[in-house]
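To: structure subgroup
Subject: Chain for Friday's discussion

All,

I'm putting the inputs and outputs inline so they're searchable in the archive.
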Amino acid sequence: RTEQTDRGLRAHHSFSYDEAHVQRIIALAVAAAGQRRNRLCVVHKPGGTPAISELWVDVAHQCATDSGVQLRFLEVDTAAYLLLAQAAAFDVVVTPNMFGDVLGDVAALLLGSRGMSYSFNVNEVGNAVYQTAHGAAYDLAGTGTANPLGQLQSLAALLRESFGLFELADALFAACNTVLAKGLRTADILAPGAKLLSTLEMGEAVAVELGVALGSNNSTPVLRGGQSD
């Protein structure tokens, strides 16, 4: 909220986390880390949000006890730097929403473009919504320049995490990687010597490679569409 003072407008903003809420979030993160490399990084900012940071650190210690998961605590500015400088040192990261919003976009640079980024929101019982990790980009509608790989990788994550279709998910991820390895690019990730594709052409190229990865003898694209967005 804002209020008028003798020094001009004064702005106020407050937010809070209760312990049960933080426990649900961190318990999911600990479980995810336990299925991967047993490493969990808790990102906070004790100098900026001391009470909230203390709560997250305390709950992380509680949730990770006897889990076999190794905890690491980083301040958000350090985490942003290290995500780019030492990406391989990270596995699962858990953080309050505001910091996660920023770090998600920072980490997208590791993929080459925000158009490559994908994400999903999951609750404590495993229900999830899968989507790209970028905005709608209405300015690209109808131009055929949007990168579909973020959406396709969101689909691959859905197949793996919600439906347990690991072979199909791995094949779709592999198809996306193969297309990139062949030097096929949309405008946002175009590099010297690469071939520029439209949104639809990139989707069809992935479909062809997906058929190859699944052992299909039919090289005809299995994804069809009208005007690309």
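Points worth raising on Friday:
DSSP finds seven helices and nine strands in the chain.
The chain has two domains: 1-111, 112-229.

D.
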